[in-house]
Each structure stands twice: as structure tokens, then as C-alpha cells.
Specification:
Layout (H helix, E strand, L loop, with lengths): L1 H7 L6 H12 L5 E7 L9 H6 L5 E10 L10 E8 L6 E6 L8 H10 L3 E2 L2 E2 L1 E5 L17 H5 L18
Length: 171
């Protein structure tokens, strides 16, 4: 199976990413693909090409909910539910919901509250609307949707954060 995937799929050999790719091939332009997957694709370098393609190159993230642990019975993997729009190459905005710190029995209610009532719950931001091009500001394009745009823009500025020059003691 590994050899087949390496020879027939573009992205790194990780079956859930390869399944995204297979679904993308079958989906019409502007169609949507929804899955519950490990959140590892959001940050790991091996998935950078996938992220680059689906923040406006080959498609776009319409929606992502980061659930954390305890969304699936007996699973110890951090999960994300995502909806990707296929074949969209224009500037897009995505909705992101952060629920990883919510207790298992409260995730559904927190999701509904963030989606339809208020994006802030008990002073904690849950709903984030992001221009997908913002993610390109940070090398590696991590899907760190909770990071403010101003902080991402530091990567493009002439300012450098240097602990030694800033007088910060690393101890």
C-alpha cells in the first residue's frame, strides 16, 4: 500500500491526507470535502505542501474546528474537523473554532455556542475568522489561527526579536 500511495499521490504518505487528495480529485470545483482528522497537518513540516495548496492555491479551508482529545471514544489523538472547498484559487476567509481546552461532555455545547451565539465564551475566544493569506506570513504556513495577524506580520518586518540584545536572561 505504501508503494502505491507514494507512486499515485502527491502529498506525504499519510493516509488521511491521501484520502483528502482522493476526495479532491472526485469533487467538482467549489465543492466541499469534510473530515474529522488528526490535527497534525496543521503544524508539521511534512504537511506544508498540503497547507500551501489549501489556503488558496488548490482549494481553501472554509471551516476548521480544533477539538483536541476526547472527541472519539478511546482515541488519544488530537482531532480537527475540517471542511475544505475544492478548486478555489481566489482570496478566501475561513472560520476556525478552538475547543481543545473544553471538557469532553461540554464540547458540543461550546461548539454550538461559538458557532451561533457568541464567539467568546466565558472570556475565552472560541471563534476566529481569518483571511487564509495570513497563514503565508509565517514560514512553514502553520495553521495557527489563534495568533493575531500583527504577530504574524513580525515575520515580514525589519525588526528582530533577540534575547541577547533585548537584555533578556534565558535562565
Amino acid at each position: 500500500v505504501q508503494d502505491y500511495v507514494e507512486n499515485h499521490y502527491e502529498y506525504t504518505t499519510e493516509y488521511y491526507i491521501n484520502f483528502f487528495e482522493a476526495c479532491d480529485r472526485l469533487t467538482k470545483t467549489n465543492g466541499r470535502i469534510g473530515m474529522l482528522v488528526p490535527r497534525s497537518f496543521m503544524f508539521l513540516k511534512s504537511f506544508q505542501d498540503f497547507r500551501e495548496d489549501f489556503i488558496g492555491g488548490r482549494g481553501s479551508f472554509d471551516f476548521l474546528a480544533e477539538y483536541g482529545i476526547d472527541i472519539l471514544d478511546n482515541a488519544t489523538v488530537r482531532t480537527a474537523g475540517t471542511v475544505i472547498r475544492s478548486g478555489v484559487k481566489t482570496e478566501q476567509e475561513g472560520s476556525f473554532i478552538r475547543l481543545e481546552d473544553v471538557e469532553k461532555g461540554e464540547k458540543e455545547q461550546a461548539f454550538l455556542h461559538a458557532s451561533f451565539v457568541d464567539g467568546v465564551q466565558d472570556g475565552i475566544p472560541r471563534l476566529y475568522e481569518r483571511d487564509l493569506d495570513e497563514f503565508k506570513l509565517v514560514p512553514g504556513i502553520p495553521l495557527s489561527y489563534w495568533v493575531p495577524r500583527g504577530l504574524r506580520e513580525l515575520y515580514r518586518s525589519n525588526y528582530f526579536l533577540d534575547a541577547d540584545k533585548g537584555g533578556v536572561d534565558a535562565e
